[in-house]
Amino acid sequence: MELTTLGGQFFIPPLDFFQRKKSGTRISLAGTRCYLGGNLEHTDAKPWRPILKNRLTSIGVSCLSPTETMFEGQQAETPEFRAELLKNRELGNLQLVHESMRPIIQRDLRAIDLCDFCIFRIETDKPTWGTVHEIVVANQQKKPIFIAAGDKGKIPLWLLGLLKPSYFYDDIEEVVAKLFAINVGKVLVDSGRWRILKDEFRKGQKEESICGFCQDTFYPDWETDLSLDMPWEPEEPEGIFLNVGGDFR
Fold first, then answer.
1. Range of the domain at 63
2. Other beta carbons less than 10 A from residue 80's beta carbon
3. Which CATH number does the domain housing residue 106 bear?
């Protein structure tokens, strides 16, 4: 086997490395968890999370939302609570705001730890520091990411450099259509990102993924299409790395 170079080092790929690059996987989403991220402090959007939650629940997906009480002992983030935070910020009580926001950040990032994939809805004309933080963390954890970006011509340059263009969608409906197509096996997924538990270890049952809608009318007329998620290149390839001196890393 020939040695290839990767990052200035010699790389000996595992035997199935080149075969895995072009492979895709059929999965059911029943019993999986999805995190719903998006603008909270600066937004004019109508509530979208409850509608999306109902759609995903129909195929057995549990949704983790920062607008809901997800954890035991969690401080409910009510409009009154947020108004109090904004008031204290204006008054200069920054330490108090810090102490209130810190557990909220920890909670939302923990939800990303627990989820199997993430959906983010961004408003490109409004600042959203928390959502960007969550996107970065989700990407570092190699979570499957779906971003409803609206006008793709206004996607922040930094996000376009961080994420593949295929992660961005026009709206939530396009994201839902893609997920439903994945769920029925019309679209294969990259096993390098999708780390789904076996059926017996999931909360739901595989049969729950069968939806009552007519496939011909509810789903786009897609054939099984690997190109939607290409290229199948593991971002952190497994194998043996050797430096110039020949020592194992």
1. 31-185
2. 9
3. 3.40.50.450
Hunting for tokens 């390098």 — which residue is that?
A: 192
Q: Is 102 part of a structural domain of the chain? A: yes
Going through the chain in order, the beta strands assigned E by DSSP cover: 4-6, 9-12, 33-38, 62-64, 117-121, 145-148, 168-169, 240-242
Q: What are the two backbone dihedrals, phi and then psi, of residue 11, each rounded to the nearest 5 degrees?
A: -125, 120
- The reported pTM is 0.72
Query: Could you tell me which residues are beta bridge partners of residue 119?
Result: 36, 146
Express each pLDDT in 154-204 by its tens digit.
999 999 999 999 999 999 999 999 999 999 999 999 888 898 888 888 865
Per residue in 94-145, pLDDT tens? 999 999 999 999 999 999 999 999 999 998 888 888 899 999 999 999 999 9
**Distance in angstroms (rounded) separating the CA atoms of residues 226 and 235:** 17
Alpha helix stretches (DSSP H) within 17-140: 17-20, 49-57, 79-90, 94-114, 129-140
Nearest to 180 by CA among 35, 49, 51, 30: 30
The order of strands in the sheet holding 9-12 is 4-6, 9-12, 240-242
